[in-house]
Amino acid sequence: MTVKYNTVKLMDIDFINISRYSFLKHIVYPSIEQQKKCFIVTANPEVVIATRDDPDFKTIVKSADYVLADGIGVVNASKLIGNPLKERVTGVDLMYDLLKYADINKKRVFFLGASEEVNIKVAEIVKKDYPGLIIAGRKNGYFNRYDDDIADYIAGTKPDIIFVALGAKRQEGWIHHYLEKFDKGIFIGVGGSFDVLSGQLKRAPAIWIKLQLEWLYRLIKEPHRMRRDLKVLEFMLLHVPVIKTIMKWLGFSKSKPRSNRDGIR
Questions:
Q1: Predicted TM-score of the model (pTM)
Q2: Are 232 and 74 in contact (CB under 8 A)?
Q3: Which of 32, 143, 155, 249 makes the best surface tag, with the fewest CB within 10 Å?
Q4: Mean pLDDT value across residues 64-88
């Protein structure tokens, strides 16, 4: 019998309301063993705002099998509307969980994205730290998104798990466009997680994460993220009673795009 999970709707995006442990145990791992296809999106506030501003991207995110709250801002917004999500589930944490699972169960994994240097480093680290895992293949992220030959090649490696690190929008767009070429596989966009795995980028210390200040740690380390973090602020304010009314007067809305751009870049 198929289990029906509750969802929480934020800016017209349905987030599955589930713990990371339950998501893996009851959905992801069984999907791998049953050789099903599963498209997972981990969405932070910036991604949700992008779905508002880009109708094509919104269609892609809504086509995913599951959308998870990757960002404490999403979890906090769910509390503000009185329908709290159980917890934050990040793409990088899911990546490590899946690597461990693949290591134990000898599953085939494909690594798509990041620079050639980072991609190679990821493969080297995985071979060392997860010797039971089978690297089905790897490819850096510098290619034409609509290169069918690359998609055909990846499908031919018969991966059980496909990590796509092409950055938000492009990675989800690639998965959506080529999903039909595959017979099976867990497809998940992991953004900059390859940089973390390779050691190029360090995650915030545990205490920063516990205090919900990972965003501040990343901003200090990467000042160029200021513009992105303003999107997080906009997202949060749009879910605060009273303030959201003021935001609407200023031209900010949960549904009205602040940009004329559309399409997946």
A1: 0.83
A2: no
A3: 249
A4: 92
